[in-house]
Amino acid sequence: MTDIQTAIDPAESDAVLQTVREQMTLKTFNPNDSELLKKMVECMGDSRGMVRLSLAETLGSIGKPATPFLLEALAHHPNPVVRRASAKTLTLICDPIALPTLLEAFLHDEDTVVNGSSVAALAKLGEPSVPHLLEVLASPKYSENTKGHAAWALAFIGSKAKESLYREISSDSVEVRAAVVGAIAKIAQEEPEEAAFNLLVNALTDAAETVRLEAASALANAAYKPAIPNLVELLHHPSWESRKAAALALMKIGVSENPPEFSVVLEPLASALNQESESQVRQVIQLAISQIEKKSEEEEWD
Question: How confident is the model over 126-145, as pLDDT tens digits?
């Protein structure tokens, strides 16, 4: 697909917008007027951002009757500006029939903005997109950047597909497990439930470092105190990156708004410091101890 940009006459865009708005105000707009809908989509190649936004919002309010014209533009229009705007407008309409075309645009369009806008629309579609996003993550065909977008989309979907995501925590794919941990972290944030936190705690013992680090970060951000014993255990993992992540997580929990008894985190950190030989981990443990001691002193003066 070549990025040929066809000049759009601003006066034409303005006239189309005015016509549609008048018809909608008078309730005479015909959603089956294919010529008018095609014109609206074509006018999204207008160089003015506010005009493109107005067209997108108007098409979004028209809804599903506009979907076929947006899909055609997303799949085949030579102007990347129109393809971008079409993907963004499909995010507003959220029509499930758009899924295959959005997936194709996400994975194969040569324009990176089209890729990002298409995966955002897939995220908005919710649970129907999940199996396809998981396939992307598990496949060796796609770049780290593409997989990062897929992981973001899963996290965005979050609790709307939690049962599907919970099942995938045991996937054979490291990329899938890491992305699912990130999505479960979002679920735990939105709907703090034991099932989500238990999966995150269990992920601290995952065979893959990236999964362990993702789980430690998620538990730290949630300041989940029941995870302290598991994080203390992680302080003694053979991998120094995992030990560092455990120390950072214990620090965040120790200085959170509702911290645990300070000795619960300080004593294991002090013990780990005596045994630690890796300089980077020692620095983090020392920082954690100093920050938690500072928090302890502040609590005493409150």
Answer: 999 999 999 999 999 999 99
What pLDDT is recorded for position 2?
40
pLDDT in tens, 189-206: 888 889 999 999 999 999
Give the other-Cβ count within 10 Å of 202's Cβ. Answer: 14
Please enumerate in sequence order all residues whose Cβ is within 8 A of that of 38, keeping only pairs 6 or more positions apart, or say none: 69
Count of CA atoms in the C-beta half-sphere (13 A) of 33: 16
**The length of the chain, given as a count of residues:** 302
Residue tagged 């965040």 (tokens): 252
pLDDT, average across residues 154-169: 94
- Which of residues 290 and 4 earns the better pLDDT score? 290
Q: What's the longest Cα–Cα distance across the chain?
A: 78
Contact 106, 115 (CB under 8 A): yes
Over its C-alpha atoms, the chain yields an Rg (Å, rounded) of 25
Neighbours of 93 (CB within 10 A): 20
Among the listed residues 90, 210, 92, the one whose alpha carbon sits nearest the alpha carbon of residue 148: 210
